What we know:
- The chain is α+β, with helices and mostly antiparallel strands.
- It has two domains: 3-83, no CATH class; 96-124, no CATH class.
- The chain is 33% helix and 12% strand.
- The protein has helices at residues 3-15, 23-28, 37-49, 106-116; strands spanning 19-21, 52-55, 67-71, 100-101, 123-124.
- Strands 1-3-2 form a three-stranded antiparallel β-sheet. Strands 4-5 form a two-stranded parallel ribbon.
- Helix 4 links the parallel strand 4 (100-101) and strand 5 (123-124).
- The longest helix is centred in the N-terminal third of the chain and has 13 residues, at 3-15.
- The N and C termini lie far apart (49 Å).
Amino acid sequence: MREGFLQLVEDITVNDKEITISPRKLLGYFYFEKRTKWNIARVTQFLEENRLETIPDFNNIWFDAQIILKHKKKAKSKKEIDPIQRIKLLTAANKELVTVNRDSKLKEAITLMMLHNYSQLPVMNSPKQL
């Protein structure tokens, strides 16, 4: 576990602070880079042992979204674990849609596809019409 994290946990429990971080940063405190089954279990165990929780659950939100790490005694409702992996966890679901309009040059479409590593792009007649 990273050096400053235990001090941060102590500050949360003693002073009733709430810290806003991302799931990526939380896992980084444990030297983890991915949400594997084992990594999630280890972080969850640590949070339970220290009476901490994340709102929303760090496992059910996009990796770079903001979560609140706080002491459990301040919790107002019981948190449910979502057993289904959601689309909102994907990086692509949290990005702006890349499109071209029907009057765009082929060169522009190819450039956008190469920049974003896409094999295809939606062609739009208007902002809401494919």
